[in-house]
Design brief:
By secondary structure, the protein is an alpha/beta fold. It has a six-stranded parallel sheet. It has helices at residues 15-25, 46-61, 76-79, 100-121, 135-144, 159-173, 207-211, 214-226, 228-236, 242-257, 303-323; strands at 5-10, 36-41, 67-73, 85-88, 127-130, 154-156, 180-181, 184-186, 194-196, 201-202, 205-206, 264-269, 281-289, 292-295. 43% of the residues lie in helices and 19% in strands. The protein starts with a strand and ends in a 5-residue tail after the last helix. The protein binds 1,4-dihydronicotinamide adenine dinucleotide. 1,4-dihydronicotinamide adenine dinucleotide (NAI) binds at residues 10-11, 13-17, 41-43, 48, 89-93, 110, 131-133, 135, 157, 160, 189, 239-241, 244. It is an enzyme of class 1 (oxidoreductase). Substrate binds at residues 94, 100, 133, 164. The active site is at residue 189. Pfam families: Ldh_1_C, Ldh_1_N.
Length: 328
């Protein structure tokens, strides 16, 4: 039997948590031969702690053979101890009348504290995925608050956007999702993101040529992927949860077990490539192998793409400027 992997999850009693934890415990994230220990973190208030207890009871009732242990926590210093993987899902949602700036600052406090806790107590190789919004900037704050950990281990979730784009492209082209390769979603997990299928292939042939409809790309596809989150809220009355959990599983599974040569999108700290300033957590195409990701480099960027990539960058830089005073 392999040594169990410690997976810390914040926001464990929330919507995404409820769709996520059972799949982690069943082996869908790390493999059917990999035991896990779940370290579940919620805010220190009665209701969420009580809800967390209920979720843990249900996890128990599944009798998952791979669930080697489980504990609930009300603070990250205890909850992140020795974590090999940290899924930072919990975040402050936007309340009525709350300005975007206030939302950023409220979350900055949470992710500063969580970054420090990771720095203090997590495994030195911890792989961090930030799901809680604004995901890219929250990941940036956590990374900056954890100076003793490798910056490359802090990532933000763009995979839901990637998967959304894949499905739209499959529907438009009539090709199976599994056959579409080399898709990219650049930038921020927000409506400014830029889903880009210029390099995408189906069975080696260009998907862009196959679709052959640039007006659809610009006027339908890009806005539809960007506004998909809002469309789900409108339809369901609640934000995406099962699809977000699914994307988190995809992100970590590929990071740990490899993407077999396929491109996937991860929000990662820029190394200055593609004109994106170093350190900005930005959606890039990567391939993953042996527990590491590497950026797909030297893709040609045309004028339209440059404009789109700069627009989403400008939003990230604005968010970064809004929290700079907290990061010293
Ligand atoms: P939810 O409100 O159902 O659950 C969030 C949970 O997090 C709550 O139980 C809350 O008590 C907990 N929480 C809040 N602050 C915490 C903290 N400091 N430590 C530990 N737990 C904390 O929300 P849901 O639907 O599960 O979404 C979670 C986050 O994921 C939201 O910020 C949402 O915007 C984001 N999201 C991100 C997506 C992405 O693609 N990156 C996609 C969908 C949602």
């Amino acid at each position: 039997m392999k040594k169990p992997v410690r997976v810390a999850v914040t926001g464990a009693a929330g919507q995404i948590g409820y769709s996520l934890l059972f799949r982690i415990a069943s082996g869908e994230m790390l493999g059917k031969d990999q035991p896990v220990i779940l370290q579940l973190v919620e805010v220190p208030f009665e209701k969420p702690q009580q809800a967390l207890k209920g979720v843990m009871m249900e996890l128990e009732d599944c009798a998952f053979p791979l669930l080697a242990g489980m504990e609930g926590f009300d603070n990250p210093q205890a909850g992140f101890k020795d974590a090999d993987i940290a899924l930072l899902v919990g975040a402050r949602p936007r309340g009525p009348g709350m300005e975007r700036k206030d939302l950023l600052l409220e979350n900055a406090k949470i992710f500063t504290e969580q970054g420090k806790a990771l720095n203090d107590v997590a495994s030195r190789d911890v792989k961090v995925l930030v799901v809680g919004n604004p995901a890219n900037t929250n990941a940036y704050i956590a990374m900056k608050s954890a100076p003793d950990l490798p910056a490359k281990n802090f990532t933000a979730m763009l995979r839901l956007d990637h998967n959304r784009a894949l499905s739209q492209l499959a529907a438009k082209s009539g090709k199976p999702v599994a056959d579409i390769e080399k898709l990219v979603v650049w930038g921020n997990h927000s409506p400014t993101m830029y889903p880009d299928y210029r390099f995408a292939t189906v069975g080696g042939a260009s998907l862009k040529d196959l679709i052959g409809d640039e007006a659809w790309n610009r006027d339908t596809f890009i806005p539809k992927v960007g506004k998909r989150g809002a469309a789900i809220i409108e339809a369901r009355g609640l934000s995406s949860a099962a699809s977000a959990a699914n994307a988190a599983i995809d992100h970590i599974r590929d990071w740990v077990l490899g993407s077999n040569g396929k491109w996937v999108t991860m929000g990662i700290p820029s190394d200055g490539s593609y004109g994106i300033p170093e350190g900005v957590i930005y959606g890039f195409p990567v391939v993953t192998q042996n527990g590491e990701y590497s950026m797909v480099r030297d893709l040609p960027i045309d004028e339209y793409s440059r404009t789109m990539m700069d627009k989403t960058l400008a939003e990230l830089e604005e968010e970064r400027a809004g929290v700079a005073h907290l990061l010293g």
